[in-house]
């Protein structure tokens, strides 16, 4: 008869274990990457609803003022309300747009913390859920770093490590809580104290120190290095600048490298030194390309190459891209980064440089569709986006199909 054992990690769920000498086969051990991929996919599947709900609500905040009401793209919603140009129902629409901006932004901001929480939960059980959530939240809103300047202490806000930091801290928190639960032995009467106080407080402290001392500073280090590299590329010429800017923008979709690229690009475009064309194209190409891949994959290679849950997400990512939101393609990057991230970068580089070569020029730092009328040579701009998106889609489709044929990738697409 199998021996069962209860664990605080799974809330007391019975887990059968074979007696010595049992003839039943032992479960096959998975590799480290296969195991981590399973945990990542758990985080992704639970993050997607927050990403979709927040992104769509946030999109309303752009559609209402800038498409429906025709507000000047350089003007914020509250500034438009105070301008005196809008009255009656228009003010009501602007108020609603401001509400969707704040609510959608807040909801959207929960996507990465929820990803980290469910990934940590998948690794270390329900006790790891709060630790993962805290780590994911700190990945988007890091604690300030104290520094001594002229004899006085100052608190400076570091660059957020975003979803890259969330992955690292989710793994660390999950395995740390799993180890704590296994290592800390208490009597049955003290089990509630262990699971509701002791492990959570130790895990929270570990996450705090891990993010503050390791993950966040690492993001800042990457940020500084990329900023210097992009500055050198910008001085080398417009094409070198476009290539570096496109690659850095597409590589981590709002992460520290992307933010460094944005900082450099904004400073150049504000000073009217170099346009921001390549960056704005690189923001939308990954999501449009992945959305396109989910639409045409079966037509191109005769099979679906994604899990079924990604097909609605692909269409949503494409829609969000036209609103200037690139995070819709994050789940694809997390699921298969070795394929998706290079595809993002190659598509963004080709699309951005093609648009620049054909004469597209954009100074206004906004990639949403409502800003397109402000672009010089809009036809070249749209052509660049289309070229980059098609290249991204084809790279992903053929690469995933090749892995499927070799038996290295399995997808549940209901084919």
UniProtKB/TrEMBL annotation:
Occurrences of domain PTS EIIC type-2 (ranges): 36-409
Entry's transmembrane regions: 48-69, 127-147, 159-177, 197-215, 235-255, 276-296, 316-334, 341-364, 370-399
Main location: membrane
Region annotation (Disordered) ranges: 1-27
Subcellular location: Cell membrane
Alphabetized UniProt keyword annotations: Cell membrane, Membrane, Phosphotransferase system, Sugar transport, Transmembrane, Transmembrane helix, Transport
PROSITE patterns the UniProt entry points to: PTS_EIIC_TYPE_2
Membrane topology listed for this record: Multi-pass membrane protein
Protein name: PTS fructose transporter subunit IIC
């Amino acid at each position: 008869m199998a021996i069962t054992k209860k664990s605080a990690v799974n809330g007391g769920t019975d887990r059968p274990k074979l007696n010595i000498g049992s003839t039943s086969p032992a479960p096959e051990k998975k590799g480290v990457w296969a195991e981590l991929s399973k945990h990542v996919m758990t985080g992704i599947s639970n993050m997607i609803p927050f990403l979709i709900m927040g992104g769509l609500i946030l999109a309303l905040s752009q559609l209402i003022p800038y498409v429906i009401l025709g507000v000047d793209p350089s003007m914020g919603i509250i500034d438009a309300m105070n301008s005196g140009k809008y009255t009656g129902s228009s003010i009501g629409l602007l108020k609603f747009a401001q509400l969707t901006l704040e609510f959608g932004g807040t909801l959207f901001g929960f996507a990465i913390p929820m990803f980290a929480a469910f990934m940590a939960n998948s690794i270390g059980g329900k006790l790891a859920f709060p630790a993962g959530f805290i780590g994911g939240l700190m990945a988007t809103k890091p604690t300030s770093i104290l520094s001594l300047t002229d004899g006085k202490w100052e608190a400076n806000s570091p660059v957020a490590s975003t979803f890259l930091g969330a992955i690292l801290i989710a793994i660390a928190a999950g395995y740390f809580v799993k180890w704590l639960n296994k290592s800390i032995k208490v009597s049955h009467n003290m089990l509630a104290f262990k699971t509701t106080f002791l492990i959570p407080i130790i895990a929270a402290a570990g996450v705090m120190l891990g993010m503050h001392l390791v993950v966040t500073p690492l993001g800042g280090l990457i940020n500084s290095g990329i900023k210097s590299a992009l500055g050198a590329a910008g001085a080398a010429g417009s094409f070198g600048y476009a290539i570096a800017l496109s690659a850095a923008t597409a590589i981590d979709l709002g992460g520290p490298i992307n933010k460094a690229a944005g900082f450099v690009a904004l400073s150049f475009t504000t000073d009217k030194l170099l346009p921001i064309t390549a960056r704005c194209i690189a923001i939308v190409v990954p999501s449009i390309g992945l959305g396109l891949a989910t639409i045409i994959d079966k037509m191109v290679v005769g099979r679906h190459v994604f899990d079924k849950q990604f097909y609605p997400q692909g269409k949503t990512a494409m829609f969000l891209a036209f609103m200037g939101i690139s995070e819709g393609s994050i789940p694809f990057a997390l699921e298969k980064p070795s394929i998706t991230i290079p595809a993002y970068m190659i598509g963004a580089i080709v699309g951005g440089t093609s648009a620049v070569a054909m004469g597209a020029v954009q100074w206004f730092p906004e990639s949403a569709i409502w800003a397109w009328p402000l672009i010089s040579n809009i036809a070249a701009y749209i052509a660049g986006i289309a070229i980059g998106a098609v290249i991204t889609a084809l790279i992903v489709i053929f690469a995933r199909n090749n892995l499927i044929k070799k038996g290295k990738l399995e997808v549940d697409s209901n084919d």
